[in-house]
Design goal:
3 strands, alpha+beta, disordered N terminus, 6 helices, 118 residues, Arc Repressor Mutant, subunit A
């Protein structure tokens, strides 16, 4: 029997076949959400929400993670009291081959260009 405390902490995620390109592109169109995805990709594992140093309020940070989760870009799960985040790289690569790698490479080039100009 599953306790209600466990089930109430489970977060809804779209099934792989429910992930849509326009949703993924929308999620990644925001610079802060793209930063989150870049950090997750660089780490290659799961990171807690508190690991991200975003220049916005906690409620806005929560919103950005929710958009990424609801569009199928990340998977979130509670581990104790921490909400852990992992990139759904396998699902995204199977559905949209090369998209994530291309977007991450383009974001890295843009970040380098901005750093060089600044």
């Amino acid at each position: 029997m599953t306790s209600t405390a466990v089930t109430s902490r489970e977060l809804p995620h779209p099934a792989r076949d429910e992930i849509r390109l326009e949703g993924v592109l929308h999620a990644l169109s925001d610079p802060l959400r793209l930063q989150i995805v870049r950090e997750l990709a660089a780490d290659g594992g799961e990171l807690s929400c508190s690991r991200f140093d975003l220049p916005v309020t906690k409620s806005t940070t929560t919103h950005h993670f929710r958009v990424l989760r609801e569009c199928g870009v990340i998977r979130q799960a509670y581990r104790g009291t921490a909400k852990m985040n992992g990139l759904r790289e396998g699902d995204l690569d199977d559905l949209f081959p090369g998209l994530l790698d291309s977007l991450l490479a383009a974001a890295a080039r843009q970040a380098a260009r901005i750093a060089a100009d600044g």
